[in-house]
Amino acid sequence: MRPPRVVVTGATGFVGSAVTAALFGPGPRPATAEPHTMRVIGRRPPSGLPSHAEWVPGDLASPATLDGCCDGAQVLLHLACSLSSDEKEAHAVNVTGTAALMAEASRAGVRRIIHLSTTAVYGQGPHDGLDVDEVEPAPVSTASRTRLAGERHALSAGATVLRAPLILGPGDRWVVPALAELLTRVPALWDGGRARLSVIDVHDLARLVVGLALVEPAPPAARILHAGHPAPVTSGELLTALAELDVLPPVPGPLDWDACLRRLHETPGRISERQFTLLARDHWYRSDAVWRAAACPPGPGPLARLPRAADFYRETVGAAGQGEG
Hints:
The protein is of the alpha/beta class. The chain has 11 helices and 15 strands.
């Protein structure tokens, strides 16, 4: 059988670029099989597309540009989203654009849809070891609220919805830069470093997405799955691992939570108290089911993957520090 034609949105983004690389690298198909054919939908073409991939101009914020984008495809990987705090912009991409894309997929008879969302839809924690059906979404940001609304359109089209947690790796411009800022504002091991976090390396997430796209039989339709590594990481372990790689300074001593919050508010910065809570208090969501569904081994975990991202992080965190100076 010929490999399926795969349509990808968000291919130039942090996760999407890793997924497209995984589609054309070693993967679940036999080594002798012909490569997957891929159609990339986006406002600009990704660099380095191979000959068996095509770029089709399309913009989720302009639904008419999506007409016919899924014709002839068997798989849709919807990885694009807006993280804007502007309600109109976020709604246009995450809700209206997703609805239009899912309508195109249904019209074209796409048989498998993977839709990337976020555990941020659960809102304020702490959450410790929860399954999908054990916590009710309560998003507090514009981006998370509109992404939750977009999930409903994806589920109606039969998609497998992946709620991803904190994502690490080359291209991460939020998690580790936020940790670096927070350590300057609250130089301590926050609440003793006990918080358990769901984390995943971007390349492991890409393997997971590709596995779900190609595994036979297909995973159950219209289902929500958490997409983190099965083993949680504590905030102290994460800070220590980054310090050992010279990405962050040495980890200071412990400070109780109330004192951490006082220190945070004494020194204003970009990261809000809500975002600090996401990184410093329990936000762990059980993710075993998704790896079974993808028939994909989760690998050693995000801390073991950090060394290959160390150069990127040192440059990124260093550049941010120079900018603040």
